[in-house]
Amino acid sequence: MAEQEKEAALPSKASFSEWYNDILHKGEIMDVRYPVKGLYVWYPFGFNLRRNVYDLIRELLDKDHQETLFPLLIPENEFMKEAEHIKGFEDEVYWVTHGGMSPLDVKLALRPTSETAIYPMYKLWVRSHADLPLKLYQIVNTFRYETKHTRPLIRLREITSFKEAHTVHATWEDAAVQVDEAIRLYTEFYRKLAIPVLPSKRPDWDKFPGADYTIATDALMPDGKTLQVGTAHHLGDNFAKTFDIQYENPEGEQVYVHQTCYGISERSVAALISIHGDDKGLVIPPEVAPVQVVIIPIIFKEAADVLQACESVKGKLEAAGIRVKLDASDNRPGAKYYKWELKGVPVRLEIGPRDLKNNAAMMVRRDTGEKQQISLDNIRDEVLSMFSVIQDNLYEKAKQGLDQRIMECISLADIKENLSKGISKVFWCGDKDCGLRLEDEVGAGILGIPSPQESCRGKCVVCETDTDTKVYVARTY
Ligand SMILES: Nc1ncnc2c1ncn2[C@@H]1O[C@H](COS(=O)(=O)NC(=O)[C@@H](N)CS)[C@@H](O)[C@H]1O
Ligand SMILES: [Zn+2]
């Protein structure tokens, strides 16, 4: 990458949209100049961040799932089997119609999601209750011909980091437990990214095509809009009946299985960048930072002993498994501070001749900018404990930001008033007409019913009938 040419400064995060587009380039996350709309290129630094983020989700899933890999291309006859599913995806799916010059006798869909690639194989693999529960996942690219405004990491036509899990169970209840387990797992995953998420049950008209119901996790972005950063679907036996997936139960009967699927994408990276970033650039939680510590030597005339000390600190931290960079380039220290703050490095260590005399280093934390002198003797423990301080601080700040922007509203006017700030909570009777009227009136979507549901009693904000259901309403990406 050419050294950061003197580019214009990053726009303030207050103009979030410009800040976001600029930080993707300046932070070397994604290059948006690829000549196909909705397809973008990972810079190596961004790809390193993605890898660290996806290592986390793998760690969580691998406790009781197995990773696998299914083909990208799905034959039309399989793709078109499940009516609901087709309706939901038919105007989003890309088709391959030729092999070289010759037209294919069966056209092939590029997977928008992999139910119709996987389930014909599940039919072959599932025979007896002893095979259940089956819990597989894959991390692949998927393709959706999105007609809404495409955005890097947020709404892509090639979703490059689509983690999809597909599980098979003996009963509807077992699958329902798995959906809750998926949401718990996503909440834990996002907690490691210091991102608070709101689980909610999507209204019926917004559930996944072919599902009984959908529970989603939403994050709140700085502009007051929510981003759906993960979803879990109870598929009932809908796909089992379509793809004839049955198992022999202990009584020797053939029974249709019940299934779930749940997915996240690179929106997880979008949320991390957007929620934690600031006017100086990226602020990356230590857990997933490609560079966790940058060491800046402060050199005057004699450089050798300072550089030597920096090398030995680097060695100690690397021995502890910390991702360290020593920036011994001949830029001025100030230019180095600017560069590594832009890249979101959680901890900076400045070491100069005066520090050496006190056998110390100046430790600067990226999230608050606070500086403190630390002894070189226990540099490893000081840095590791600073990582957890930063992780917790980033989460607390984001949690506060979320809680402050969830407003209880008692009228449609209240909701409209609150829309630019964040999420509204209102009573809803659950009736579809009221729901759609509410969405029309306020120009924003019903996100869903908080899950687990809170006990409460009030009047539907549209029809005034008594109800014990509250919903989140917000503008969404
Ligand atoms: N065009 C897109 N760009 C980026 N992320 C997307 C896009 N479409 C969906 N996602 C993300 O992918 C997640 C899963 O997508 S989904 O349609 O809701 N669910 C499925 O496809 C199911 N098969 C579970 S994997 C969504 O929660 C959302 O976070
Ligand atoms: Zn109502």
From TrEMBL:
Reactions listed under catalytic activity: tRNA(Pro) + L-proline + ATP = L-prolyl-tRNA(Pro) + AMP + diphosphate
Localization (cell): Cytoplasm
GO cellular component, one term: aminoacyl-tRNA synthetase multienzyme complex
Pfam families found in the cross-reference section: HGTP_anticodon, ProRS-C_1, tRNA-synt_2b
EC number in record: 6.1.1.15
Signal peptide: none
InterPro entries in the record: aa-tRNA-synt_IIb, aa-tRNA-synth_II, aa-tRNA-synth_II/BPL/LPL, Anticodon-bd, Anticodon-bd_dom_sf, Pro-tRNA-ligase_IIa, Pro-tRNA-ligase_IIa_arc-type, Pro-tRNA_ligase_II_C
Key words of the record: Aminoacyl-tRNA synthetase, ATP-binding, Cytoplasm, Ligase, Nucleotide-binding, Protein biosynthesis
Recorded superkingdom: Archaea
Domain Aminoacyl-transfer RNA synthetases class-II family profile: 48-285
Gene Ontology biological process terms from the UniProt entry: prolyl-tRNA aminoacylation
Function: Catalyzes the attachment of proline to tRNA(Pro) in a two-step reaction: proline is first activated by ATP to form Pro-AMP and then transferred to the acceptor end of tRNA(Pro).
Subunit structure: Homodimer.
Domain notes: Consists of three domains: the N-terminal catalytic domain, the anticodon-binding domain and the C-terminal extension.
Membership in a protein family: Belongs to the class-II aminoacyl-tRNA synthetase family. ProS type 3 subfamily.
Stated name of the protein: Proline--tRNA ligase
Species per Swiss-Prot/TrEMBL record: Methanolobus halotolerans
Gene of this entry: proS
